[in-house]
Amino acid sequence: MPSIKKNVLILFSVIALAPVVLSPAVQAANNKTIQQGKQLFEQNCAVCHQADAIGKPGFAPSLTNKEFLSIASDKFLEGTIRDGRVGTGMPPFGHLGRSKVKAIVAYLRSYSKLPNRAAKVDAQKAAHGDPRLGKTWFDDICATCHGEKGNGYAAGGTGTAIGMPGFLSKASDGFIRETIKNGRSNTRMRGFKGPTGLANLSDQEIDDIIVYMRTLPKQ
Q1: Which residues touch 114 (CB under 8 Å, ≥6 apart)?
Q2: Do 129 and 100 share a structural domain?
């Protein structure tokens, strides 16, 4: 019996590690959706987010950054495209309809270079901390790019509006936490965790910042 169980475990391990092979029909459908998303992006989004969605500092963020795509869920992306970001230059595109919004997300996903960790990241525990301490860190570190109240480009900085309801209502604490820790490569958003981080913030200090950020829409 032990040997049978061992063989079964080995079999399941091999299956789990095997690459998913899509049928030609499914792959063709996926490619068609991505191509449709590319066209829709070029018609509606590229004017701000630039070609290939690489973004422009102080104007529109990169949507194909590998760290961003690895932690942003489809729900986050679809909701942002659909609803826009009130109080910023990002208008709503809900008029496109659900299928076209999904096609744009599929196009953005085609740039993914890292495993999708969105579900695991969003399942992280909620942040608990002291917003007063969080404000100190936010003012010293985050406000330089994101503005004193987190209102982003409107404050003349290079960072996005992370203190606005349009972002905070869709971003999980895990999403914000991972962004602060690891930053975004090839952007001005640097990581703030570990010896190579700009400030080597502790886990608690990062949670303090998140708790404070949650208070910004009420200010």
Answers
A1: 66, 67, 69, 70
A2: no
